[in-house]
Amino acid sequence: MEIVNWIIDAILLGVHAVFSMAPPLLGLTVLSAVVGVAMLWGFGKTSNQQRMKQVKRRMQAGLLELRVFVDEPVISMRAQKSLLAANLNYLLLALRPALWMAVPVGLLLIHLASFYDRSPLPLSAPAMVTLRMSGDLAESAAPPELVVPANVQILGPPVRVTALREVSWRIVPLSPMSDKLQFRFNGRSAWISIEAGGRQRYVPGTKVASVWGSVFSPSNGRIPGEFAEWAEIRYPAARLQLFGFRVNWLVWFLVVSMASALLLKKRFAVVI
Q1: Main-chain phi, psi angles of 118, to 5 degrees
Q2: Which candidate in 129, 213, 216, 222 could, as Cys together with 208 as Cys, close a disulfide (CB 3.0–4.6 Å)?
Q3: What is the pLDDT of residues 158-210, one digit of tens each?
Q4: DSSP 8-state symbol, 222
Q5: Residue 181 · residue 194 · CB < 8 Å
Q6: Phi and psi at residue 160, to the nearest 5°
Q7: Backbone phi, then psi, for 80, in 5-degree steps?
Q8: Which residues, 6+ apart, have CB-to-CB distance to 161 below 8 Å?
Q9: Phi–psi pair at 209, nearest 5 degrees
Q10: d(Cα 124, Cα 214) in Å, to the nearest integer?
C-alpha cells in the first residue's frame, strides 16, 4: 500500500508543482476538471450505455404521459408506475460504474486532503504535537523525548494522558520550514514531517502504524508499530478563496468535476 500511496503522491506533487505559483484554487480546478473527464470516460466504459439509453427514453415517455393525460387517473397512475420502474432500473444500471469508480476516486480525495485540507503551521503561534504509544505508559516512567529542529521551540514539558496512552507537546515554529520532528523512547525513534510558514502546499497528515490506517492517512508513511500507534501535528484548516469568499475544497472538487462531466457528455457520446 505504501508504494501505491507514494505513486499517487508523486503524481499529485508533479501537478501541484506546475501550478505552484498560481492560487491554490486554480490547480484544484484544473485537476477537478481532468478527474471529471476521466470519470465520464470510465462511466461510459463500465456502464451498459444501450440499456441506459432505453431506460432514459422510457423515463421521458413517462413524464410526457403524465403531462398529456393529467386528467386521466388510470393512465396517469400507470405512467407513474412506469416512471418509478424506469428510475429504479436506471439506478441499478448506474450502480456498476459507481462502484468501479468509488475506490480510485476515494483514494484520490484522501491524498488531495494533504494539498487542500490543511495549511502549514503559522509562524510564532503555538501548535500541538501528539504521540499515541502502542503500549501502556506508566505514570512513573519517563515520557518519550521530542527532538525538534533549531527553528522550533518547545513550550514546557510534555503532557501525558495515561488512559489514552497519549503524550502531547506544545511547539512554536519560528521560521518557514519543511522538516521533521523526531520522537525517542527506550532506544527507539520515529519521525513525523512538519510544515510551517509560506504558501499553501503539501502538508502531510497523521502518521499511523497499521496498514489499514495508512489507507486513510497515507501522506507520512508508517510509524514503527512497536513504538507508537500514531503521531500527528494539528494543522489549521486551509483557506481557499474565490473572489474573497472562502471555498471548501471538497465541495469545489465535486462541483467542478461533475460540471465538466455534464458539459462534455455529448462530446464523449456518454449517456449519464
Answers
A1: -120, 150
A2: 213
A3: 999 888 999 999 999 999 999 999 999 888 889 999 999 998 899 999 999 88
A4: B
A5: yes
A6: -105, 140
A7: -65, -40
A8: 167, 168
A9: -95, -35
A10: 31
Q: Which of 266, 176, 260, 190 is nearest to 225 (CA)?
A: 190
CA distance 224 to 133: 11
Distance (Å) of CA 272 to CA 50, 57, 86, 268: 11, 12, 14, 11
pTM of the model: 0.85
Contacts of 87 (CB under 8 A, 6+ apart): 59
Helix, strand, coil percentages (3-state) for the chain, rounded to 5, are 45, 25, 30
Please tell me which residue, 217 or 249, carries the higher pLDDT value. Answer: 249
Residue ranges of domains in the chain = 2-118+247-264, 127-235
CA torsion, ordered 15, 18, 23, 27, to nearest 10 deg: -30
Please state, in angstroms and rounded to a whole number, the distance separating the CA atoms of residues 24 and 36. Answer: 18
Please give the Cα distance from 12 to 16 (Å, whole number).
6
Relative to beta strand 245-247, strand 240-242 is antiparallel
Q: How far apart are CA 239 and CA 247, in angstroms?
A: 7
Q: Could you give the CA distance from residue 73 to residue 76 in angstroms, rounded to a whole number?
A: 5
Long-range contacts of 203-212 (CB under 8 A, 24+ apart): 203/114, 203/115, 203/118, 203/119, 203/120, 203/235, 204/114, 205/113, 205/114, 205/118, 205/232, 205/235, 206/230, 206/231, 206/232, 207/231, 207/232, 209/134, 211/1
State the residue for C-alpha cell 505508559. 137
H helix or E strand, kind and range, residue 154: strand 152-161
Cell reading at 56: 432514459
Cβ-Cβ contacts under 8 Å for 84 (sequence gap 6 or more): none
